[in-house]
């Protein structure tokens, strides 16, 4: 029968713009699939002699597409016949094309049967080309407020690209949007028809204007605007030959335009409502594949004799045939692989999907030494390959094991095979470990990450660690790391763990990971989280791994200078504290400070805790400062400076690697809102609003010949508030580019816009951001320095002016109470713990979280969408900038000095176009030799 081609792992596009809640119609160009399949595969016949190579390839591609892509509606569109309405006014149109090969003709009908067997609508109409129907359906879906993805790389369809419509190249699995169209034609999509009319198309017998190609046509259309204007002013063209050619062939150009212009008003043979995406019926699909004798496809798709349902998964190879319940097989015993023969035998069992995990001697992926690799091919079928195990017992030498080189010679091709999906948990760590030269320098792809699969559905619901997920979904408690390595001073590194214990622990990890994948991956489509996982979370793995490995350069000399300055200021502040107190005391001692503030100085508001000492936390000191007390204010300044010195100055200095750069670790599945967090060191909490915080950013520098660039979303959470809530005045302010805080001050405090001063604007800004976080009257009063009663009056005035905001907040709280979660603007479920708690304090906190989560979650997803697009966009433009950091709403890049302007323009374009809100997204870009100067 031959073998199915193995295209590269899918780079799944996201819907062109807008909320994932909008309908999304996928239109597959059937002819493109048919001819690609026919020419890619060798001749194949059924037992009855019918040729089926195109049918097999079509089924493979359609099946894989359905596993990889999520849409609310889907159809395959076919050409009905050779002759269309275009042949009526231009008989030569496509007349020179040869008839299809004889062995392909009988397969056309089978391919239409295959489409129906997959549960996908099959659309065609005599007299019209498939491209016309695609144009008509795209127009109809757009009119309904939906999004459209056209699966084709046909240049004729590029004229349809717009905000709501994109193409997807089925070979490269890359989206085609306006930049790709411009690269192809030199004009925006709305001008493609004008360029084609001039350039013609020999493939379709579109005459065009002789001697004018795409490049010249693009120049002419850019200059004159459209074909008719060009033809009307052709006499003005200075080049005599071009002028004469245009004048002589004007009618050919007009005919060509009619030929290439797609008929977006073509009749719709089937209503869009009938194209709702649904999973195939296993019995029907199995019967069709069995009739064609496609046994390998039956096994891969889990139908017929293999399995009762199709798993929703992403893979470039066949799926293993497994038990219906991934937890059914026993957990172990597992195999220890110490010979090449045993490894070859185990790898022979790999059938398209491989569970993978690494064991190392460090949690720092960039420093970790690979100790062993564990693999799983099916539930209960797992093994451990020790690589660098030693012994701390003089009587027991190091165990016999394979060398890293020998293992990678056999395993490396599997790890890089695009036809084998590698399933990991927290894949970013393992990919970085394996990418290090000392560990083989292997670029593993394609991968799925069970941590992120779970996170896409259950952010905030429970921990995304492998062990808790195993207990939650498999009912199995895995062996703990502590149980094999020990604890505390007696802990040993994993390379000293005996092989039997190492195998039981490590192989189980790979086994559990594979079982979690089998359990959780099908849920993605059911939970409407497939697009989020494929388009955002999964693609972030490689993006973040590259950022972490690149790191950001830190000037150690400048850092020491800052540290010395801070140390001097701390001494001065400590002396000031002693002066105010009237005696020396330990400024870092809360007990001594409390005694001075409340016993000796007699300040009001002191409360003792269980230890008998007064509380002197930040809130207490801020309250005392607001009352005019001098010492608490100086103590707060001392504490902030001391924290900056210890956490950032000293912490950063110790984190500078041998390459002079700091490599943070971005945690992908910790927050309940989808936000990334940064650790080891944390680079997301360096203060920007204080002079000291800005000084620390002075130490983050660019390499010679480069600058650091900051691209920062402006007021993104407030824009999301205006997007979600019915607040016409806020939307109007953003549309006009007004100062939103001044506008709020004017409307809430009743001040003419031109009379709003800095203090009124500051108060309005505090209210704007406080409302997003569900702030209380007490909290707002503390921030504004007013009594809670006055703060309550401000909040009430705010809601009277913007009732839509209150309505949205109440809706979110009710949604959380009813469902246990709220939805981000893009459809991510954000689970809210304690929303049903009996404790009113816990419940109130959960309600505030429910209010804020969609705004933080929406902002997080917008910048993630930008992050997965930026590297590709930079590469497409030939720009050498590198993305280094993400700090909430900001991206930091290192950019060659000669490419600053081009990179800034690209960043604004990419970041501002990743989502369609009801108000504009605005990105502010700056650059400088250091991070502080980039703002």
TrEMBL record:
SUPFAM superfamilies from the UniProt entry: 5' to 3' exonuclease, C-terminal subdomain, DNA/RNA polymerases, PIN domain-like, Ribonuclease H-like
Domain of life of the native organism: Bacteria
Catalytic activity: DNA(n) + a 2'-deoxyribonucleoside 5'-triphosphate = DNA(n+1) + diphosphate
Residue segments, region Disordered: 1-20
Record-annotated 5'-3' exonuclease domain positions: 22-278
Keyword DNA damage annotated: yes
Top-level EC class as recorded in UniProt: transferase
Any single biological process term in GO: double-strand break repair
Assigned keywords, A-Z: DNA damage, DNA repair, DNA replication, DNA-binding, DNA-directed DNA polymerase, Exonuclease, Hydrolase, Nuclease, Nucleotidyltransferase, Transferase
InterPro entries: 3'-5'_exonuclease_dom, 5-3_exonucl_a-hlix_arch_N, 5-3_exonuclease, 5-3_exonuclease_C_sf, DNA-dir_DNA_pol_A_CS, DNA-dir_DNA_pol_A_palm_dom, DNA/RNA_pol_sf, DNA_polI_H3TH
Residues in 3'-5' exonuclease domain copies: 334-525
Entry's Gene Ontology molecular function annotations: 3'-5' exonuclease activity; 5'-3' exonuclease activity; DNA binding; DNA-directed DNA polymerase activity
EC number: 2.7.7.7
SMART domains (alphabetical): 35EXOc (SM00474), 53EXOc (SM00475), HhH2 (SM00279), POLAc (SM00482)
Boundaries of every DNA-directed DNA polymerase family A palm domain copy: 693-899
Similarity field: Belongs to the DNA polymerase type-A family.
Subunit structure: Single-chain monomer with multiple functions.
Function: In addition to polymerase activity, this DNA polymerase exhibits 3'-5' and 5'-3' exonuclease activity.
NCBIfam families: pola, PRK05755.1
Name listed for the protein in its UniProt record: DNA polymerase I
């Amino acid at each position: 029968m031959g073998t199915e081609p193995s295209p590269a792992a899918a780079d799944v596009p996201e819907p062109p713009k807008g909320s994932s809640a909008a309908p999304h119609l996928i239109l597959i160009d059937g002819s493109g699939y048919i001819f690609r399949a026919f020419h890619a595969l060798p001749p194949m016949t059924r037992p009855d002699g019918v040729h089926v190579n195109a049918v097999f390839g079509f089924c493979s591609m359609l099946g894989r597409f359905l596993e990889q892509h999520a849409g609310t509606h889907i159809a395959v569109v076919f050409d009905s016949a050779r002759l269309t309405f275009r042949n009526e006014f231009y008989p030569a149109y496509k007349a020179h094309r040869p008839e299809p090969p004889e062995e392909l003709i009988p397969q056309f009908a089978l391919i239409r049967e295959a489409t129906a067997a997959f549960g996908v609508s099959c659309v065609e109409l005599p007299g019209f080309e498939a491209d016309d129907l695609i144009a008509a359906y795209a127009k109809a879906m757009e009119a309904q407020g939906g999004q459209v993805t056209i699966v084709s790389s046909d240049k004729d369809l590029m004229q349809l690209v717009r905000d709501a419509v994109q193409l997807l190249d089925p070979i490269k699995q890359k989206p085609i949007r306006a930049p790709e169209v411009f690269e192809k034609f030199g004009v925006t999509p709305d001008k493609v028809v004008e360029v084609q009319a001039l350039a013609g198309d020999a493939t379709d017998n579109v005459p065009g204007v002789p001697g004018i190609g795409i490049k010249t046509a693009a120049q002419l259309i850019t200059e004159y605007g459209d074909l008719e204007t060009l033809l009307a002013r052709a006499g003005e063209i200075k080049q005599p030959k071009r002028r004469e050619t245009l004048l002589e062939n004007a009618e050919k150009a007009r005919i060509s335009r009619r030929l290439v212009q797609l008929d977006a008003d073509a009749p719709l043979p089937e209503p869009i409502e009938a194209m709702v995406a649904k999973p195939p019926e296993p019995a029907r699909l199995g019967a069709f594949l069995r009739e064609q004798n496609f046994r390998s496809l039956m096994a891969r798709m889990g139908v017929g004799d293999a399995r009762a349902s199709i798993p929703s998964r992403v893979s470039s190879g066949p799926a293993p045939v497994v038990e219906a319940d991934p937890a059914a097989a026993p957990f172990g015993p597992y195999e220890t692989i110490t010979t090449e023969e045993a490894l070859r035998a185990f790898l022979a069992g790999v059938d398209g999907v491989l569970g993978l995990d690494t064991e190392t001697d460090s949690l720092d992926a960039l420093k970790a030494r690979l100790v062993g690799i564990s693999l799983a091919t099916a539930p209960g079928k797992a093994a451990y390959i020790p690589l660098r195990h030693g012994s701390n017992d003089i009587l027991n030498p190091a165990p016999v094991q394979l060398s890293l080189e020998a293992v990678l010679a056999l395993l490396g091709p599997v790890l890089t095979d695009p036809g084998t999906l590698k399933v990991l948990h927290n894949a970013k760590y393992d990919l970085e470990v394996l990418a290090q030269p000392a560990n083989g320098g292997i670029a593993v792809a394609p991968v799925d990450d069970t941590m992120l699969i779970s996170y896409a559905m259950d952010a905030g619901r429970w921990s995304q660690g492998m062990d808790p997920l195993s207990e939650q979904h498999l009912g199995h408690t895995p062996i703990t790391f502590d149980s094999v390595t020990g604890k505390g001073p007696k802990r040993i590194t994993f390379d000293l763990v005996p092989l039997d214990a190492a195998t039981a622990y490590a192989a189980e990890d790979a086994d559990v990971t594979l079982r979690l994948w089998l359990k959780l991956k099908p849920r993605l489509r059911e939970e409407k989280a497939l697009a989020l996982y494929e388009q955002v979370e999964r693609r972030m793995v490689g993006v973040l791994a590259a950022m972490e490995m690149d790191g950001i350069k830190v000037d150690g000399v400048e850092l020491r200078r800052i540290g010395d300055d801070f140390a001097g200021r701390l001494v001065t502040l400590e002396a000031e504290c002693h002066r105010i107190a009237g005696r020396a005391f330990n400024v870092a001692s809360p007990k001594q400070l409390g005694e001075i503030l409340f016993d000796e100085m007699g300040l009001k508001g002191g409360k003792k805790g269980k230890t008998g000492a007064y509380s002197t936390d930040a809130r207490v000191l801020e309250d005392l400062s607001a009352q005019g007390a001098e010492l608490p204010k100086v103590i707060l300044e001392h504490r902030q400076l001391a924290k900056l010195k210890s956490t950032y100055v000293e912490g950063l200095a110790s984190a500078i690697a041998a390459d002079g750069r700091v490599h943070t670790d971005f945690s992908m599945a910790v927050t309940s809102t989808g936000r990334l967090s940064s650790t080891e060191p944390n680079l997301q909490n360096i203060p920007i609003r204080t002079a000291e915080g800005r000084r620390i950013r002075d130490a983050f520098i660019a390499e010679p010949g480069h600058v650091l660039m900051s691209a920062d979303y402006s007021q993104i959470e407030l824009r999301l508030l205006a997007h979600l809530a019915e607040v016409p005045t806020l939307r109007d302010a953003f549309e006009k580019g007004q100062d939103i805080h001044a506008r709020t001050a004017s409307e809430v405090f009743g001040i003419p816009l031109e009379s709003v001063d800095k203090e009124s604007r500051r108060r309005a800004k505090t209210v704007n951001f406080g409302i997003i976080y569900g702030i209380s009257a007490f909290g707002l009063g503390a921030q504004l320095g007013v009594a809670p009663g006055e703060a309550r009056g401000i909040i009430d005035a705010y809601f009277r002016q913007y009732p839509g905001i209150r309505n949205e907040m109440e809706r979110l709280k009710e949604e959380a109470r009813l469902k246990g979660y709220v939805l981000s603007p893009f459809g991510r479920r954000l689970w809210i713990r304690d929303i049903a708690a009996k404790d009113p304090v816990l419940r109130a906190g959960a309600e505030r979280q429910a209010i804020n989560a969609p705004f933080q979650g929406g902002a997080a997803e917008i910048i993630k969408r930008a992050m997965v697009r930026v590297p590709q966009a930079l590469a497409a433009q030939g720009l050498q900038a590198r993305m280094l950091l993400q700090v909430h709403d900001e991206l930091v890049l290192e950019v060659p000095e000669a490419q600053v302007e081009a990179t800034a323009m690209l960043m604004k374009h990419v970041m501002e176009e990743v989502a369609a809100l009801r108000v504009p997204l605005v990105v502010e870009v700056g650059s400088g030799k250091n991070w502080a100067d980039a703002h």
